[in-house]
Amino acid sequence: MEFASRIFSILLGVAVVALLLWPAKIPLGFGGVWWASQKAQSRPEPPPPPVKSEPQQQPNPPPPPPQAAAQPPAPAPQPEQHAVEPSAAPPKPAQAPEAKAQSDQGAALNENGTKETGASPPQTASKLYYRVTVRDGGTLQSGGVVIKLAGIATRAADATCKNAKGKNWACGAEAKAALARLIRGRAVTCRVPQGPEQKDIVARCSLSGDDLSTWMVRQGWAEPKDANEPALAEAEQAAKKDKLGLWRGSD
Description:
By secondary structure, the chain is α+β, with helices and mostly antiparallel strands. The chain has six helices and twelve strands. The protein has a four-stranded antiparallel beta sheet. Strands 2-3-4-9 form a four-stranded mixed beta sheet. β10 and β11 (210-211) form a beta hairpin. The radius of gyration is 67 Å and the shape is rod-shaped. Residues 24-28, 81-90, 96-103 and 105-117 have low confidence and may be disordered.
């Protein structure tokens, strides 16, 4: 009995100590359960976890429309063509002796035997005259066409000249004879104006490549109308030096 009372006393003391040490705010027994539920309700609810949004799927592109017809295969690439620089101009063909004499000796003269003054020369063409007769030292005739040799001044067929001693001599007849001996009835080529044929023309004529106007000046039977034409000027100086034709008596 005494032992039991001691135990009871110990338990009672423990209970008293427990009551003293237990926090006043926390109820015991059923009250503790109620307090815990109220505490839980007063706590703020945690925010819901963020919902991960799934990436939107891009819509598939529509299929390309069917082609009306198969495209032809691309042509094979052509080899690149390199620009070729033009080569040097081909050499000019050699002129015939007749054309060369006409271009050298008649370039500065027009169809009337005068020097060009900037105007374009008239269009001319070569024409062959047959059965040529000599009317004087500077005039030819073929059929009904009379041709005056261009670029020179000559004496008439009946003209006379005086020698160093003052004696007359038939210089016109001798000039005509010299030209007739050169031609001897052969065909003569003349540069005549294009167009309808004229009966009286002034032209540069040649025989076997020799310009007749230059030949007459070189033989002393004619004088240049234009002293600035090189071919005729040289021919005149040579005739005077050799004392030919009209210059044989001019000492």
